[in-house]
Write a sequence for this structure.
């Protein structure tokens, strides 16, 4: 899957702003790893609540991000 999909998906998750997103990516190594790594790794990030960890696990954000990337590519944005 395209790394852009994971990056966009992170921005769609309620409670994850730019600072928390950067912390997650720094700890996990990539935006893809944020979605791939287990809950125990995510709990180590300052500011990450149980609710946010549950949201990360939901596939809806990746599906929405896939649609965004498809739209961007289709419209050549």
């Amino acid at each position: 899957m395209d790394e852009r999909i994971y990056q966009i998906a992170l921005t769609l998750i309620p409670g994850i702003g730019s600072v928390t997103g950067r912390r997650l990516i720094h700890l996990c190594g990539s935006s893809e790893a944020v979605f791939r790594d287990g809950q125990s790794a995510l709990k180590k990030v300052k500011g990450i609540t149980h609710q946010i960890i549950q949201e990360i696990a939901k596939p809806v954000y990746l599906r929405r991000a896939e649609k965004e990337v498809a739209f961007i590519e289709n419209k050549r944005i």
User: Anything to note?
Assistant: The radius of gyration is 12 Å. The CA atoms of residues 9 and 62 lie 5 Å apart. The longest helix spans residues 60-75. The helical segments are 3-12, 18-28, 31-36, 39-42, 50-57, 60-75.
